TrEMBL record:
Gene3D superfamilies: 3.40.50.1360
Active site: 67 (proton acceptor), 136 (for ring-opening step), 138 (proton acceptor), 143 (for ring-opening step)
Name of the protein in question: Glucosamine-6-phosphate deaminase
Pfam families: Glucosamine_iso
Amino acid sequence: MEVVIVPDADAGGEIIAEAMAGLLRRKPEALLGVATGSTPLPVYRALAAKAAAGDVDVSRARICQLDEYVGLPAGHPESYRSVVLREVVEPLGLDEASFMGPDGSAGDVPAACARYERELAEAGGVDLQLLGIGTDGHIGFNEPCSSLASRTRIKTLTRQTRADNARFFGGDIDQVPHHVITQGIGTILEARHLVLLATGENKAEAVAQTVEGPLSAMVPASALQTHPHATVVVDEAAASGLKLADYFRATYEAKPHWQGL
């Protein structure tokens, strides 16, 4: 994996937004996979600013969702559909028709999972998938011990993940759903470019295990080691557990500026 160490979250957001913008300049109808939570917000702000300044035309871009809570009513402000529309689609000035995601309120959840898997394939696959990482090393909602070949499916959240997400539900863990639909690790690995963004010291151990540890289902994000084009962007705090941090810094500094991520 390529590892890029940046001073802070805003610097990481700018680098990734430029990678997305570069992709859209080459392929205006690119399918961008987005993640939710607080970590990727600098990416979306930076990309929206580039679009507003005329640096990139996003009008034909397509957006797809990584995961979704099961059981929240349609339009719930913390459903990931609502979050992505609010934080990504609307700031970019895109029509809702450009956005696709799984139906977490479906009566038949397994059928909704299979349908979303088909929709991703029919759309030609994800060109760039932005990922976050959990403190336990999960990506999407693929918790530890998830199959590295898994497809889009329903998953039960661990208490740790629900506790981490309680801040979006007024701090009340009891309001956080127990189940989600998530792209599987095998599905995620089919994206042409994977970009994982992590910030903060609480992610340092998970980042170190992902980048420098063994490939293991106990650290689902370690599956990125098998991908031909995976980039990990971390701030200094999240990089604090990396034994090869100096090597990664030197490697990125020596990279030709035109090559991008």
